[in-house]
Protein backbone atom coordinates (compact mmCIF):
# COMPACT_ATOMS: atom_id res chain seq x y z
CA UNK A 1 0.00 0.00 0.00
CA UNK A 2 2.75 2.44 0.88
CA UNK A 3 4.66 1.87 -2.37
CA UNK A 4 1.71 2.37 -4.76
CA UNK A 5 -0.35 5.30 -6.00
CA UNK A 6 -3.60 4.14 -4.45
CA UNK A 7 -5.66 6.66 -6.43
CA UNK A 8 -4.59 5.12 -9.75
CA UNK A 9 -4.10 1.47 -8.82
CA UNK A 10 -5.46 -1.08 -11.35
CA UNK A 11 -5.99 -4.86 -11.41
CA UNK A 12 -7.04 -7.20 -14.23
CA UNK A 13 -9.76 -8.52 -11.95
CA UNK A 14 -10.99 -7.91 -8.42
CA UNK A 15 -13.06 -10.90 -7.20
CA UNK A 16 -15.43 -10.31 -4.27
CA UNK A 17 -13.76 -10.30 -0.84
CA UNK A 18 -10.31 -10.45 -2.44
CA UNK A 19 -7.35 -8.22 -1.52
CA UNK A 20 -7.73 -6.61 -4.95
CA UNK A 21 -11.31 -5.60 -4.18
CA UNK A 22 -10.25 -4.16 -0.83
CA UNK A 23 -7.53 -2.07 -2.46
CA UNK A 24 -9.89 -0.88 -5.19
CA UNK A 25 -12.32 0.36 -2.54
CA UNK A 26 -9.84 3.10 -1.69
CA UNK A 27 -9.73 4.28 -5.29
CA UNK A 28 -13.51 4.65 -5.24
CA UNK A 29 -13.47 6.57 -1.93
CA UNK A 30 -14.98 3.72 0.07
CA UNK A 31 -12.23 3.56 2.69
CA UNK A 32 -9.12 5.09 4.20
CA UNK A 33 -5.55 3.82 4.30
CA UNK A 34 -5.89 2.83 7.94
CA UNK A 35 -9.22 1.05 7.57
CA UNK A 36 -8.10 -0.88 4.49
CA UNK A 37 -4.86 -1.85 6.22
CA UNK A 38 -6.88 -3.21 9.16
CA UNK A 39 -9.11 -5.24 6.84
CA UNK A 40 -6.11 -6.67 5.02
CA UNK A 41 -4.50 -7.67 8.32
CA UNK A 42 -7.70 -9.55 9.22
CA UNK A 43 -7.74 -11.18 5.79
CA UNK A 44 -4.16 -12.35 6.27
CA UNK A 45 -5.02 -13.70 9.73
CA UNK A 46 -7.97 -15.72 8.48
CA UNK A 47 -6.70 -16.94 5.12
CA UNK A 48 -2.97 -17.61 4.90
CA UNK A 49 -1.61 -21.10 5.46
CA UNK A 50 1.73 -22.58 4.52
CA UNK A 51 2.64 -26.28 4.48
CA UNK A 52 -0.45 -27.04 6.49
CA UNK A 53 0.49 -24.57 9.25
CA UNK A 54 -2.01 -21.79 9.97
CA UNK A 55 -0.40 -18.45 10.90
CA UNK A 56 -1.77 -16.65 13.95
CA UNK A 57 -2.14 -13.50 11.82
CA UNK A 58 -1.83 -9.82 12.70
CA UNK A 59 -4.15 -8.24 15.24
CA UNK A 60 -4.78 -4.70 13.99
CA UNK A 61 -6.80 -1.76 15.31
CA UNK A 62 -7.64 1.50 13.56
CA UNK A 63 -7.01 4.48 15.82
CA UNK A 64 -8.48 7.91 15.20
CA UNK A 65 -7.17 11.16 16.59
CA UNK A 66 -5.30 14.35 15.74
CA UNK A 67 -2.26 14.58 13.48
CA UNK A 68 -0.08 17.52 12.53
CA UNK A 69 -0.39 17.10 8.79
CA UNK A 70 -0.21 19.22 5.66
CA UNK A 71 -2.56 21.98 6.79
CA UNK A 72 -1.07 22.28 10.27
CA UNK A 73 1.07 25.24 11.35
CA UNK A 74 2.78 25.60 14.75
CA UNK A 75 0.36 27.15 17.22
CA UNK A 76 -2.80 25.67 15.65
CA UNK A 77 -5.24 24.16 18.17
CA UNK A 78 -7.23 20.92 18.01
CA UNK A 79 -9.36 21.33 21.12
CA UNK A 80 -13.06 21.24 20.22
CA UNK A 81 -12.41 19.93 16.70
CA UNK A 82 -13.24 16.44 15.39
CA UNK A 83 -10.33 14.04 14.76
CA UNK A 84 -8.59 14.68 11.45
CA UNK A 85 -6.59 11.49 10.91
CA UNK A 86 -6.48 7.74 11.46
CA UNK A 87 -3.64 5.24 11.75
CA UNK A 88 -3.10 1.68 12.99
CA UNK A 89 -1.82 -0.21 15.99
CA UNK A 90 -0.75 -3.82 15.37
CA UNK A 91 0.13 -6.54 17.87
CA UNK A 92 3.37 -8.27 16.88
CA UNK A 93 5.34 -10.71 19.01
CA UNK A 94 3.76 -9.65 22.25
CA UNK A 95 3.81 -5.86 21.87
CA UNK A 96 1.83 -3.13 20.14
CA UNK A 97 3.40 -1.25 17.23
CA UNK A 98 2.32 2.04 15.61
CA UNK A 99 1.92 2.20 11.83
CA UNK A 100 0.75 5.07 9.62
CA UNK A 101 0.36 3.61 6.14
CA UNK A 102 -0.81 6.88 4.64
CA UNK A 103 2.14 8.97 5.77
CA UNK A 104 4.49 6.14 4.82
CA UNK A 105 3.18 6.30 1.26
CA UNK A 106 3.64 9.90 0.17
CA UNK A 107 4.53 13.48 1.04
CA UNK A 108 4.21 16.95 -0.45
CA UNK A 109 7.16 18.40 -2.35
CA UNK A 110 6.03 21.96 -1.53
CA UNK A 111 3.86 23.67 1.01
CA UNK A 112 0.67 23.83 -1.08
CA UNK A 113 -1.70 20.88 -0.70
CA UNK A 114 -2.36 20.07 -4.35
CA UNK A 115 -2.31 16.79 -6.33
CA UNK A 116 0.61 17.93 -8.50
CA UNK A 117 2.76 18.35 -5.36
CA UNK A 118 2.17 14.82 -4.06
CA UNK A 119 5.25 12.59 -4.30
CA UNK A 120 4.77 8.84 -3.85
CA UNK A 121 7.80 7.55 -1.99
CA UNK A 122 8.03 4.96 0.77
CA UNK A 123 9.05 6.33 4.18
CA UNK A 124 9.81 3.48 6.57
CA UNK A 125 9.84 5.81 9.60
CA UNK A 126 6.05 5.39 9.84
CA UNK A 127 6.29 1.62 10.01
CA UNK A 128 6.54 0.59 13.68
CA UNK A 129 7.14 4.12 14.98
CA UNK A 130 8.73 4.63 18.37
CA UNK A 131 5.91 5.84 20.67
CA UNK A 132 8.03 8.64 22.17
CA UNK A 133 8.59 9.96 18.62
CA UNK A 134 5.12 9.34 17.20
CA UNK A 135 3.50 11.44 19.93
CA UNK A 136 5.09 14.59 18.48
CA UNK A 137 2.83 14.26 15.43
CA UNK A 138 0.04 11.78 16.36
CA UNK A 139 -2.41 12.18 19.26
CA UNK A 140 -5.03 9.39 19.57
CA UNK A 141 -8.46 10.04 21.05
CA UNK A 142 -7.85 7.22 23.51
CA UNK A 143 -4.61 8.14 25.34
CA UNK A 144 -3.75 4.48 25.98
CA UNK A 145 -2.76 4.20 22.30
CA UNK A 146 0.09 6.63 22.86
CA UNK A 147 1.82 3.53 24.31
CA UNK A 148 3.62 5.77 26.82
CA UNK A 149 3.90 5.20 30.57
CA UNK A 150 2.82 8.83 31.14
CA UNK A 151 0.49 9.91 28.30
CA UNK A 152 0.60 13.48 27.05
CA UNK A 153 -2.39 15.76 27.38
CA UNK A 154 -3.89 17.43 24.33
CA UNK A 155 -2.54 20.78 25.54
CA UNK A 156 1.00 19.38 25.71
CA UNK A 157 0.62 17.91 22.23
CA UNK A 158 -0.56 21.25 20.85
CA UNK A 159 2.39 23.06 22.43
CA UNK A 160 5.07 20.76 20.98
CA UNK A 161 6.96 21.83 17.84
CA UNK A 162 5.93 20.38 14.51
CA UNK A 163 8.36 17.52 13.82
CA UNK A 164 8.59 15.30 10.75
CA UNK A 165 10.25 11.99 10.00
CA UNK A 166 13.40 13.78 8.81
CA UNK A 167 13.86 15.14 12.34
CA UNK A 168 14.33 11.64 13.74
CA UNK A 169 16.13 10.19 10.72
CA UNK A 170 18.83 12.83 11.19
CA UNK A 171 18.88 12.18 14.96
CA UNK A 172 18.00 15.77 15.87
CA UNK A 173 17.19 16.16 19.55
CA UNK A 174 15.71 18.66 21.99
CA UNK A 175 18.26 19.64 24.63
CA UNK A 176 15.63 21.50 26.65
CA UNK A 177 11.86 21.71 26.55
CA UNK A 178 10.75 23.16 23.24
CA UNK A 179 7.48 24.97 22.56
CA UNK A 180 6.12 25.16 19.04
CA UNK A 181 5.42 28.86 19.62
CA UNK A 182 8.30 30.92 21.00
CA UNK A 183 8.58 34.61 21.86
CA UNK A 184 11.41 37.09 21.42
CA UNK A 185 12.55 39.67 23.95
CA UNK A 186 13.28 43.03 22.33
CA UNK A 187 13.41 41.29 18.97
CA UNK A 188 16.18 38.88 20.03
CA UNK A 189 16.03 35.10 20.38
CA UNK A 190 18.43 32.17 20.69
CA UNK A 191 17.37 28.56 19.98
CA UNK A 192 19.44 25.41 20.54
CA UNK A 193 18.98 21.89 19.16
CA UNK A 194 21.26 18.88 19.34
CA UNK A 195 22.08 16.13 16.86
CA UNK A 196 24.21 13.02 17.05
CA UNK A 197 24.44 11.76 13.49
CA UNK A 198 26.29 13.40 10.55
CA UNK A 199 23.94 15.73 8.73
CA UNK A 200 23.56 18.97 6.86
CA UNK A 201 21.17 21.73 7.93
CA UNK A 202 19.59 24.85 6.53
CA UNK A 203 16.42 26.87 7.23
CA UNK A 204 13.70 29.14 5.87
CA UNK A 205 12.21 32.13 7.70
CA UNK A 206 8.89 33.62 6.58
CA UNK A 207 6.90 36.62 7.78
CA UNK A 208 3.12 36.92 8.15
CA UNK A 209 2.58 40.15 6.23
CA UNK A 210 -0.62 41.21 8.01
CA UNK A 211 0.87 40.81 11.51
CA UNK A 212 2.94 44.00 11.64
CA UNK A 213 1.69 46.31 14.37
CA UNK A 214 -1.06 43.92 15.48
CA UNK A 215 -1.62 44.20 19.27
CA UNK A 216 -2.04 40.41 19.67
CA UNK A 217 -0.21 38.74 16.77
CA UNK A 218 -0.31 35.34 18.47
CA UNK A 219 -4.10 35.31 17.98
CA UNK A 220 -3.96 35.81 14.22
CA UNK A 221 -4.92 32.96 11.92
CA UNK A 222 -2.42 32.22 9.18
CA UNK A 223 -3.09 31.81 5.50
CA UNK A 224 -0.01 30.37 3.74
CA UNK A 225 -0.55 32.85 0.88
CA UNK A 226 0.19 35.67 3.35
CA UNK A 227 3.66 34.35 4.21
CA UNK A 228 6.62 36.14 2.63
CA UNK A 229 10.39 35.60 2.55
CA UNK A 230 10.92 39.32 3.10
CA UNK A 231 9.31 42.30 4.80
CA UNK A 232 7.71 44.83 2.41
CA UNK A 233 9.60 47.78 3.92
CA UNK A 234 12.99 46.05 3.53
CA UNK A 235 14.79 44.79 0.46
CA UNK A 236 16.84 42.17 2.32
CA UNK A 237 16.01 38.46 2.54
CA UNK A 238 14.80 37.48 6.01
CA UNK A 239 17.39 34.70 6.10
CA UNK A 240 20.01 37.40 6.66
CA UNK A 241 18.50 38.19 10.06
CA UNK A 242 19.13 34.65 11.32
CA UNK A 243 22.49 33.08 12.03
CA UNK A 244 22.63 29.29 11.99
CA UNK A 245 25.72 27.92 13.72
CA UNK A 246 26.55 24.22 13.51
CA UNK A 247 29.07 22.62 15.85
CA UNK A 248 29.90 18.91 16.07
CA UNK A 249 26.67 18.16 17.97
CA UNK A 250 24.76 21.45 18.35
CA UNK A 251 22.57 23.53 16.09
CA UNK A 252 22.31 27.14 17.30
CA UNK A 253 20.05 29.85 15.86
CA UNK A 254 20.46 33.56 16.66
CA UNK A 255 17.61 35.87 15.63
CA UNK A 256 17.57 39.66 15.61
CA UNK A 257 14.35 40.45 13.83
CA UNK A 258 13.70 43.73 11.97
CA UNK A 259 9.93 44.00 12.55
CA UNK A 260 7.34 42.98 15.11
CA UNK A 261 4.79 40.34 14.19
CA UNK A 262 4.63 36.63 13.37
CA UNK A 263 7.41 34.58 11.77
CA UNK A 264 7.56 30.91 10.80
CA UNK A 265 10.86 29.03 10.92
CA UNK A 266 11.33 25.76 9.02
CA UNK A 267 14.51 23.79 9.71
CA UNK A 268 15.64 21.47 6.92
CA UNK A 269 18.01 18.54 7.33
CA UNK A 270 19.93 16.18 5.10
CA UNK A 271 21.20 12.73 6.01
CA UNK A 272 24.88 12.19 5.28
CA UNK A 273 26.42 8.76 4.88
CA UNK A 274 30.09 8.25 5.70
CA UNK A 275 30.49 12.02 6.16
CA UNK A 276 30.18 12.73 2.45
CA UNK A 277 28.30 15.53 0.70
CA UNK A 278 26.33 15.02 -2.48
CA UNK A 279 27.14 17.73 -5.00
CA UNK A 280 23.40 18.09 -5.62
CA UNK A 281 22.17 17.94 -2.05
CA UNK A 282 18.49 17.73 -1.18
CA UNK A 283 17.21 18.89 2.19
CA UNK A 284 13.83 17.93 3.66
CA UNK A 285 11.79 19.71 6.29
CA UNK A 286 12.57 18.42 9.79
CA UNK A 287 10.67 20.74 12.15
CA UNK A 288 8.82 24.05 12.29
CA UNK A 289 8.33 26.84 14.82
CA UNK A 290 6.17 29.93 15.14
CA UNK A 291 8.03 33.00 16.42
CA UNK A 292 6.22 35.98 17.93
CA UNK A 293 8.39 39.11 17.77
CA UNK A 294 7.50 41.71 20.38
CA UNK A 295 9.37 44.62 18.74
CA UNK A 296 12.16 45.20 16.23
CA UNK A 297 15.61 44.54 17.62
CA UNK A 298 17.57 47.71 18.36
CA UNK A 299 20.46 46.37 16.28
CA UNK A 300 18.31 44.64 13.67
CA UNK A 301 20.82 44.74 10.85
CA UNK A 302 21.60 41.72 8.67
CA UNK A 303 24.43 39.39 9.47
CA UNK A 304 27.37 39.59 7.04
CA UNK A 305 26.39 38.32 3.62
CA UNK A 306 28.30 35.13 2.87
CA UNK A 307 27.63 32.25 0.51
CA UNK A 308 26.30 29.63 2.92
CA UNK A 309 23.39 29.69 5.37
CA UNK A 310 25.46 27.76 7.91
CA UNK A 311 28.26 29.16 10.04
CA UNK A 312 31.09 27.05 11.35
CA UNK A 313 33.08 24.23 9.75
CA UNK A 314 31.20 22.10 7.23
CA UNK A 315 32.37 18.88 8.83
CA UNK A 316 31.94 16.57 5.80
CA UNK A 317 34.28 18.84 3.81
CA UNK A 318 36.64 19.22 6.76
CA UNK A 319 36.93 15.45 7.05
CA UNK A 320 37.23 14.98 3.30
CA UNK A 321 40.21 17.36 3.11
CA UNK A 322 41.65 15.93 6.38
CA UNK A 323 41.74 19.29 8.16
CA UNK A 324 41.79 20.14 11.86
CA UNK A 325 40.37 23.65 12.50
CA UNK A 326 41.51 25.59 15.55
CA UNK A 327 37.98 27.02 15.93
CA UNK A 328 35.14 24.49 15.91
CA UNK A 329 32.37 27.04 16.62
CA UNK A 330 30.96 29.31 13.95
CA UNK A 331 31.09 32.49 16.05
CA UNK A 332 34.39 34.03 17.14
CA UNK A 333 34.20 37.00 19.53
CA UNK A 334 37.19 39.25 20.14
CA UNK A 335 37.70 42.38 22.25
CA UNK A 336 40.32 45.13 22.28
CA UNK A 337 43.08 44.42 24.79
CA UNK A 338 44.92 47.71 24.30
CA UNK A 339 44.13 51.25 25.38
CA UNK A 340 41.95 53.26 23.06
CA UNK A 341 43.70 55.44 20.50
CA UNK A 342 43.17 59.21 20.63
CA UNK A 343 42.87 60.99 17.30
CA UNK A 344 44.02 64.46 16.36
CA UNK A 345 40.56 65.86 17.12
CA UNK A 346 40.58 64.32 20.58
CA UNK A 347 38.15 61.52 19.66
CA UNK A 348 38.90 58.07 21.04
CA UNK A 349 38.68 54.99 18.83
CA UNK A 350 39.23 51.31 19.65
CA UNK A 351 42.45 49.94 18.14
CA UNK A 352 42.43 47.27 15.42
CA UNK A 353 42.45 43.71 16.76
CA UNK A 354 43.74 40.51 15.21
CA UNK A 355 42.69 36.88 15.34
CA UNK A 356 44.49 33.83 13.97
CA UNK A 357 42.52 30.88 12.58
CA UNK A 358 44.58 27.76 11.96
CA UNK A 359 43.92 24.57 10.02
CA UNK A 360 46.10 21.55 10.66
CA UNK A 361 46.61 19.49 7.48
CA UNK A 362 47.12 15.76 7.27
CA UNK A 363 47.34 16.13 3.49
CA UNK A 364 50.01 18.75 2.65
CA UNK A 365 48.82 19.03 -0.96
CA UNK A 366 45.51 20.65 0.12
CA UNK A 367 45.40 24.40 -0.55
CA UNK A 368 43.25 26.88 1.38
CA UNK A 369 42.22 30.47 0.77
CA UNK A 370 40.04 32.95 2.66
CA UNK A 371 37.68 35.79 1.77
CA UNK A 372 36.71 38.49 4.28
CA UNK A 373 33.31 40.19 4.04
CA UNK A 374 31.47 43.00 5.77
CA UNK A 375 28.16 44.56 4.80
CA UNK A 376 28.66 47.88 3.00
CA UNK A 377 32.39 47.41 2.43
CA UNK A 378 33.92 46.23 -0.88
CA UNK A 379 35.54 42.80 -0.64
CA UNK A 380 38.62 44.04 -2.50
CA UNK A 381 39.28 46.58 0.23
CA UNK A 382 38.99 43.97 2.99
CA UNK A 383 41.52 41.74 1.22
CA UNK A 384 44.29 43.86 2.75
CA UNK A 385 43.12 42.95 6.27
CA UNK A 386 43.85 39.24 6.01
CA UNK A 387 47.01 37.34 5.13
CA UNK A 388 48.04 33.69 5.19
CA UNK A 389 51.12 31.74 6.30
CA UNK A 390 51.75 28.18 5.15
CA UNK A 391 53.73 25.20 6.35
CA UNK A 392 53.56 21.60 5.22
CA UNK A 393 51.23 20.70 8.08
CA UNK A 394 49.35 23.94 8.84
CA UNK A 395 47.69 26.93 7.20
CA UNK A 396 47.12 30.03 9.35
CA UNK A 397 44.90 32.96 8.41
CA UNK A 398 45.82 36.21 10.19
CA UNK A 399 42.76 38.48 10.19
CA UNK A 400 42.87 42.11 11.35
CA UNK A 401 39.59 43.81 12.25
CA UNK A 402 40.03 47.58 11.82
CA UNK A 403 37.09 48.55 14.04
CA UNK A 404 34.24 46.95 16.04
CA UNK A 405 31.58 45.15 14.05
CA UNK A 406 30.75 41.85 12.42
CA UNK A 407 32.82 40.28 9.68
CA UNK A 408 32.26 37.11 7.68
CA UNK A 409 35.30 34.95 6.90
CA UNK A 410 34.86 32.26 4.23
CA UNK A 411 37.38 29.43 3.84
CA UNK A 412 37.75 27.53 0.55
CA UNK A 413 39.71 24.32 -0.05
CA UNK A 414 41.31 22.73 -3.09
CA UNK A 415 43.31 19.65 -3.96
CA UNK A 416 45.40 19.28 -7.15
CA UNK A 417 42.91 16.90 -8.77
CA UNK A 418 40.28 19.69 -8.67
CA UNK A 419 42.32 22.03 -10.87
CA UNK A 420 41.54 25.67 -10.14
CA UNK A 421 38.23 24.92 -8.38
CA UNK A 422 38.01 25.78 -4.68
CA UNK A 423 35.17 24.36 -2.57
CA UNK A 424 33.49 26.37 0.19
CA UNK A 425 34.06 24.34 3.34
CA UNK A 426 33.84 26.73 6.29
CA UNK A 427 32.75 30.20 7.32
CA UNK A 428 33.05 32.15 10.56
CA UNK A 429 31.28 35.17 11.99
CA UNK A 430 34.11 37.17 13.56
CA UNK A 431 32.59 39.65 16.01
CA UNK A 432 34.74 42.52 17.28
CA UNK A 433 32.72 43.54 20.34
CA UNK A 434 32.11 47.25 20.66
CA UNK A 435 33.65 48.63 23.89
CA UNK A 436 31.30 50.51 26.26
CA UNK A 437 31.06 54.18 25.44
CA UNK A 438 32.19 53.85 21.84
CA UNK A 439 30.28 55.97 19.34
CA UNK A 440 30.68 54.43 15.87
CA UNK A 441 31.84 56.56 12.95
CA UNK A 442 30.78 56.03 9.36
CA UNK A 443 34.38 55.10 8.55
CA UNK A 444 33.73 51.57 7.33
CA UNK A 445 30.06 51.81 6.42
CA UNK A 446 29.64 54.98 4.37
CA UNK A 447 31.37 57.29 1.97
CA UNK A 448 31.59 60.99 2.60
CA UNK A 449 32.93 62.86 5.59
CA UNK A 450 35.67 61.02 7.44
CA UNK A 451 35.48 58.12 4.98
CA UNK A 452 38.52 55.93 4.68
CA UNK A 453 40.51 53.81 7.10
CA UNK A 454 41.58 55.30 10.39
CA UNK A 455 45.27 56.20 10.75
CA UNK A 456 45.55 53.36 13.25
CA UNK A 457 44.16 50.85 10.76
CA UNK A 458 46.48 52.13 8.04
CA UNK A 459 49.44 51.73 10.36
CA UNK A 460 48.34 48.22 11.34
CA UNK A 461 48.23 47.08 7.71
CA UNK A 462 51.23 49.10 6.47
CA UNK A 463 49.16 51.11 3.97
CA UNK A 464 49.43 54.66 2.77
CA UNK A 465 46.61 57.09 3.49
CA UNK A 466 46.22 57.85 -0.21
CA UNK A 467 45.72 54.18 -1.09
CA UNK A 468 43.12 53.70 1.59
CA UNK A 469 41.17 56.82 0.65
CA UNK A 470 41.02 55.81 -3.01
CA UNK A 471 39.48 52.46 -2.12
CA UNK A 472 36.88 53.96 0.19
CA UNK A 473 36.08 56.64 -2.36
CA UNK A 474 34.59 53.91 -4.54
CA UNK A 475 31.71 53.41 -2.12
CA UNK A 476 28.69 54.73 -3.99
CA UNK A 477 26.34 55.50 -1.10
CA UNK A 478 25.99 55.21 2.64
CA UNK A 479 24.96 51.83 4.03
CA UNK A 480 21.44 51.71 5.49
CA UNK A 481 22.66 49.42 8.29
CA UNK A 482 24.46 50.82 11.37
CA UNK A 483 27.81 49.66 12.66
CA UNK A 484 27.28 46.66 14.90
CA UNK A 485 26.60 47.43 18.55
CA UNK A 486 25.13 44.06 19.46
CA UNK A 487 25.94 42.24 22.66
CA UNK A 488 27.66 38.84 22.41
CA UNK A 489 25.40 36.34 20.64
CA UNK A 490 25.88 33.74 23.37
CA UNK A 491 24.02 36.05 25.74
CA UNK A 492 20.92 36.35 23.56
CA UNK A 493 17.53 35.68 25.14
CA UNK A 494 16.58 31.98 25.28
CA UNK A 495 12.79 31.71 25.56
CA UNK A 496 12.85 28.10 26.75
CA UNK A 497 14.93 29.00 29.80
CA UNK A 498 12.14 31.34 30.96
CA UNK A 499 8.98 29.73 29.53
CA UNK A 500 6.39 27.95 31.70
CA UNK A 501 7.08 24.27 32.21
CA UNK A 502 5.33 21.90 29.82
CA UNK A 503 5.42 19.12 32.40
CA UNK A 504 6.88 15.66 31.92
CA UNK A 505 7.69 15.03 28.26
CA UNK A 506 9.07 11.85 26.70
CA UNK A 507 12.57 12.02 25.32
CA UNK A 508 12.53 11.43 21.55
CA UNK A 509 15.23 8.78 21.93
CA UNK A 510 15.40 5.96 24.44
CA UNK A 511 18.97 6.78 25.39
CA UNK A 512 20.99 9.97 25.03
CA UNK A 513 23.78 9.67 22.49
CA UNK A 514 25.95 12.49 23.79
CA UNK A 515 26.88 14.18 27.06
CA UNK A 516 24.61 17.09 27.83
CA UNK A 517 25.89 20.30 29.44
CA UNK A 518 24.79 20.76 33.03
CA UNK A 519 22.47 23.64 32.18
CA UNK A 520 20.30 21.29 30.07
CA UNK A 521 19.84 18.69 32.81
CA UNK A 522 16.87 20.42 34.45
CA UNK A 523 14.27 18.01 35.79
CA UNK A 524 11.48 20.43 34.99
CA UNK A 525 12.30 20.16 31.29
CA UNK A 526 12.36 16.41 30.80
CA UNK A 527 11.70 13.17 32.54
CA UNK A 528 14.65 10.74 32.75
CA UNK A 529 15.39 8.77 29.62
CA UNK A 530 13.44 5.54 29.51
CA UNK A 531 12.95 2.67 27.12
CA UNK A 532 9.66 1.97 25.42
CA UNK A 533 7.61 -0.04 27.94
CA UNK A 534 6.53 -3.61 27.43
CA UNK A 535 2.97 -4.82 27.94
CA UNK A 536 3.86 -6.84 31.01
CA UNK A 537 2.34 -5.41 34.17
CA UNK A 538 0.69 -2.52 32.34
CA UNK A 539 -3.03 -3.12 31.78
CA UNK A 540 -3.29 0.01 29.62
CA UNK A 541 -1.07 -1.65 27.04
CA UNK A 542 -2.71 -5.06 27.22
CA UNK A 543 -4.10 -6.61 24.07
CA UNK A 544 -7.60 -5.57 23.00
CA UNK A 545 -9.48 -7.48 20.33
CA UNK A 546 -9.78 -5.71 16.97
CA UNK A 547 -13.53 -5.56 17.31
CA UNK A 548 -13.26 -3.25 20.32
CA UNK A 549 -11.04 -0.66 18.67
CA UNK A 550 -12.45 2.62 17.31
CA UNK A 551 -13.12 2.83 13.59
CA UNK A 552 -11.89 5.49 11.22
CA UNK A 553 -14.40 8.17 10.29
CA UNK A 554 -12.21 10.86 8.80
CA UNK A 555 -10.07 11.24 5.71
CA UNK A 556 -6.42 11.20 6.83
CA UNK A 557 -4.12 14.12 6.18
CA UNK A 558 -0.82 14.15 4.33
CA UNK A 559 2.46 15.15 5.89
CA UNK A 560 4.20 18.19 4.42
CA UNK A 561 7.88 17.62 3.66
CA UNK A 562 8.89 20.52 1.38
CA UNK A 563 11.91 18.95 -0.23
CA UNK A 564 12.15 19.73 -3.91
CA UNK A 565 12.71 23.48 -3.62
CA UNK A 566 15.83 23.09 -1.48
CA UNK A 567 18.10 21.20 -3.87
CA UNK A 568 21.35 23.08 -4.18
CA UNK A 569 24.96 22.69 -5.28
CA UNK A 570 28.05 22.88 -3.11
CA UNK A 571 29.65 26.33 -3.47
CA UNK A 572 32.80 26.57 -5.54
CA UNK A 573 34.97 29.34 -6.92
CA UNK A 574 37.48 29.30 -9.77
CA UNK A 575 40.81 31.07 -9.76
Key terms:
575 residues, Immunoglobulin-like, 10-stranded mixed sheet, 6-stranded mixed sheet, 10 helices, 33 strands, 30% strand
**Beta-strand residue percentage:** 25-35%
The 3D shape can be described as globular
Tell me the number of helical segments per DSSP (H or I, 4 or more residues long): 10
Largest sheet: number of strands, sense, barrel closure: 10 strands, mixed
Number of spatially distinct domains = 3
The whole-angstrom Rg is 28 Å
Region (Disordered): 515-575
Protein name: Kyphoscoliosis peptidase
Domain KY-like immunoglobulin-like: 154-304, 359-435
InterPro entries: Ig-like_KY, Papain-like_cys_pep_sf, Transglut-like_Superfamily_Mod
Describe the secondary-structure layout.
Layout: H1 19-27, H2 33-47, E1 49-50, E2 53-54, E3 59-67, E4 85-92, E5 95-99, H3 101-105, E6 106-108, E7 118-120, E8 127-129, H4 131-134, E9 138-140, H5 154-159, E10 162-163, H6 165-169, E11 172-173, E12 181-183, E13 188-195, E14 199-208, E15 227-228, E16 242-246, E17 250-256, E18 261-271, E19 280-281, E20 284-293, E21 310-313, H7 315-320, E22 323-325, E23 331-334, E24 341-342, E25 348-349, E26 353-361, E27 367-373, H8 379-382, E28 386-390, E29 394-401, E30 405-414, E31 421-432, H9 455-461, H10 465-472, E32 568-569, E33 572-574
Parallel strand pairs: 12-20, 16-21, 23-31
Antiparallel strand pairs: 1-2, 3-4, 3-9, 4-5, 5-8, 6-7, 10-20, 11-13, 13-17, 14-15, 14-18, 16-17, 18-20, 19-32, 21-31, 22-26, 24-25, 26-29, 27-30, 28-29, 30-31, 31-33
Helix pairs in contact: 1-2
Region (Disordered): 515-575
Protein name: Kyphoscoliosis peptidase
Pfam families: Ig-like_KY
Amino acid sequence: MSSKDMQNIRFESSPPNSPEEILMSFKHNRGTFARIFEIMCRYVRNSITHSGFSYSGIHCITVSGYAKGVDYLPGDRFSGLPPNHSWNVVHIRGSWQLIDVHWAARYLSSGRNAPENVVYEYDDFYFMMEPQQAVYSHFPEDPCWQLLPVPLTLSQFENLPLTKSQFFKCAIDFLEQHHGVVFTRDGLLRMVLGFWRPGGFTYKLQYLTNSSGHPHPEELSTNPSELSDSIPSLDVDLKNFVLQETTKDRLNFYFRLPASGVYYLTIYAQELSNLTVDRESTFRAACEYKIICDRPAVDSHPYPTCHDANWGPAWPHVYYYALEPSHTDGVISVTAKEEWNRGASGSRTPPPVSVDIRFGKQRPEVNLLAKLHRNGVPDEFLDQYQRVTETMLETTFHVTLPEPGEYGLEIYANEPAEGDTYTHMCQYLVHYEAPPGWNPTPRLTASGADAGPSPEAIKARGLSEATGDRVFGRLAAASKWPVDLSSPLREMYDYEMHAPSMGVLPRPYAESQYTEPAKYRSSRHFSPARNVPSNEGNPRLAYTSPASGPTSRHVPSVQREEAADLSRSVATIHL
